[in-house]
């Protein structure tokens, strides 16, 4: 099973930051919570801090990540099973930007629900709605 971490970066106006996957990647063109895979020896929070630095050019402390949910998929032959851990983060340094390509943007809850997203990100979004509501 592959473990992946993702961040629900929430701005002061309560909008969420999302990244659009580059067209040449798996789920290309879909919007997702930023993050990535754990490397050997990393905790999920350490991996997320590293990924946000590499992908978005921001600095966030692992202690500023708060568990917000998880989603999982089964292996399908071509892809291994995935466990996606979502952390909420309201504090970081720098302005997020797409350092590895793709578009980025800030979205309200309503706007996020209208975007095309990978299945696990869509499941996390639905989970957030259920917890809020």
Q: What ranges have pLDDT less than 50 throughout 5 or more consecutive residues?
A: none
**Tally of alpha and pi helices:** 3
Oligomer: single chain
Average pLDDT rating: 90
The computed structural class is alpha+beta
Residues in helix, %: 10-25%
Strand order of the largest sheet: 4-1-6-5
Q: How many β-strand runs?
A: 7
Radius of gyration over C-alpha positions, nearest whole angstrom: 14 Å
- Shape estimate: globular
- Biggest sheet, in brief? 4 strands, mixed
N-to-C CA distance: 31 Å
Helix and strand run: EEEEHEEEHH
Relative strand content: 25-35%
Description:
By secondary structure, the chain is of the alpha+beta class. The chain is built from three helices and seven strands. The protein has helices spanning 44-56, 109-114, 119-132; strands at 2-9, 16-20, 31-32, 35-37, 66-73, 82-89, 104-107. Strand 5 and strand 6 (82-89) form a beta hairpin.
Give the SSE map:
Elements: E1 2-9, E2 16-20, E3 31-32, E4 35-37, H1 44-56, E5 66-73, E6 82-89, E7 104-107, H2 109-114, H3 119-132
Keywords summarizing the entry:
25% helix; globular; 29% strand; 133 residues; 4-stranded mixed sheet; 7 strands; 3 helices; alpha+beta
